[in-house]
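step 4 of 6: structure.
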Amino acid sequence: MSKEEVHITVIDREGLSHEIDAPLGIGMNLMELCKAMELPVEGTCGGMALCASCQIYIESDHDLLSRNDAEQAMLDEAWHVENNSRLGCQIPISEALEGLVVRIAPE
Amino acid sequence: MIRTDILIIGAGPVGLFTVFEAGLLKLHCHLIDSLPQPGGQCSEIYPKKPIYDIPGFPMILAGELVDNLMKQASPFKPGFTLGESAETIVEDGGGGYVVTTDKGTKHRAPVVVIAGGLGVFSPRKPPITELQDFEDKGVEYIVRDPEFYRDKKVVVSGGGDSALDWTYFLANGVAKEVTLVHRSQSFRAHPDSVQKVIDMAESGKIKLILDTDVVGLSGNGKLEQVTMKNKEGEETSLETDHWIPLFGLTPKLGPIAEWDLEIEKNAIKVDTVDYSTNRPGIYAIGDVNTYEGKLKLILCGFHEGTIMVQSAFKRIHPDKKNVLKYTTVQGIHGF
């Protein structure tokens, strides 16, 4: 039987860790997961990579798909961008995310 | 004082469709929006994005949807107060309200409908320590009047459409000198706009500085110089009269949060019978409201507006009866 959940750690802006079992197979992304857990991620544009309000840092050593053009262009205009910055809305929840640790970027 | 039957706060798709539905009941509408153009998020954030869940349209671009809604509302001659945000609301003593904008424009109506979506859009400000010292002293987040920049030295920052479009406009015989500073080599803007700006840089009409950020501002009482830092960490400075950072807009619920309305998780609680709020005569529709089972979808907002105007009619004309008439039978009778 395939897995139904992956474990993800989200560190909020106060440094608190939230341990989340994220459901697989319902097409969620990291932005939506954070919003569903009522973490302070805005996701203003709804997931179109058009606002950068879901910027997160990938803190664990996961090999994720690289940024697409839209995500890269948006990050080129965002603040507090680091090499490990990503837009949560562009990262679908998948089995590859097991054990992922992310930190929410400053507002 | 602007007077109307229904004062709609927010000229996004839901506010615009409400004009149509109110018009069928012979109610006049006036809309207030902080953005300079109608359409809300559809115009400001994603005009070129396709929408697939508008009934009857297998696909429509957000910008086209706004154009169509404006056309649909036009027989009912809505009024607009654009580029101003609704700031205060007071009871008018006759069961209605007076809403005043941040620029002091007053509106009076028996019914107020908040269709404010995500809220008031305000510019995203770069995290530069001395930014506040130079706001309106050389730093402007919005180009209100291009003439303001005539014969001035201007630095524009950003990689989206507004940054590129204003660079192009200001460099065409308005400003004395225009420099576009962008953090990367690629742009988020429309390819046509990008090409125009690159052509201008090649012909020497503008200065294009890529892979670079503006990181500091200095001047004596007004902006005189910007400090820039490139990817290699090298700092340079450039003399300028103005810096226009155009990094998009971000929404905040804004002053409406202080209107004594019941707020839950940044949204206004409503009764789904008619989308009324806890204050009589004030309704909330679209993304700005919340109730059990709420879905933030344009199509749900259309429904909410349609139901709401029936209740507004009863409030405005307590003695009149209203019978639902199909547009297929009656057609549209504009004002």
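step 5 of 6: annotate
 - The mean pLDDT of chain A is 93.
 - The longest strand of chain A covers residues 5-11.
step 6 of 6: archive
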